User: Which sequence fits this backbone?
């Protein structure tokens, strides 16, 4: 049997998290029961227009995960595989909501594995309560005056209201 060079099980949960939702938190809370540590990684994507800056997103995540032991937030601009090497882990944690997520996630998992053969992607299915909750939909609803209370952490809800109310002035 081959000895694993990765001593602890550290998973990196990458995404834009613009903003983090209760669906994301569900994946984190369930994931920490499987892994020793989870790094919630805000990935900088220059091709995506974001509502919140990377720094704002990391701050909101830090506040939202505050009491979850073994979970921390970080950010990275560049290839995910480079971040994994830097943090000496080989596990990517991803959440899956619907069949429509599968094709994209499958492509990403295979591309990451092609970049570094020892990378493993672990998928957790979204809790049924969060099946249709996504950051894009959250922003869309708030932008036209709808309520997303209960779908995002309270601190994120407040930031969304501040951001969109400021835009209306």
Assistant:
């Amino acid at each position: 049997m081959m000895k694993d060079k990765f001593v602890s099980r550290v998973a990196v949960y990458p995404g834009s998290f613009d903003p983090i939702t209760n669906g994301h938190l569900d994946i984190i809370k369930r994931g920490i029961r499987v892994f020793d540590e989870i790094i919630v990684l805000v990935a900088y994507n220059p091709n995506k227009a974001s509502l919140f800056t990377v720094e704002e997103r990391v701050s909101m995540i830090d506040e939202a995960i505050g009491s979850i032991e073994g979970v921390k937030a970080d950010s990275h601009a560049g290839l995910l595989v480079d971040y994994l090497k830097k943090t000496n882990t080989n596990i990517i944690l991803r959440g899956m909501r619907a069949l429509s997520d599968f094709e994209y996630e499958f492509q990403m998992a295979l591309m990451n594995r092609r970049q570094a053969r020892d990378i493993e992607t672990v998928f957790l299915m979204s809790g049924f309560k969060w099946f249709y909750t996504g950051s894009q939909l959250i922003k869309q609803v708030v932008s036209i005056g709808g309520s997303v209370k209960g779908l995002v952490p309270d601190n994120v809800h407040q930031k969304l209201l501040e951001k969109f109310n400021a835009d209306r002035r």
User: Anything to note?
Assistant: Helices lie at 22-31, 54-65, 80-86, 99-115, 135-143, 154-168. The CA atoms of residues 149 and 157 lie 6 Å apart. Residues 99-115 form the longest helix (17 residues). DSSP finds six helices and five strands in the chain.
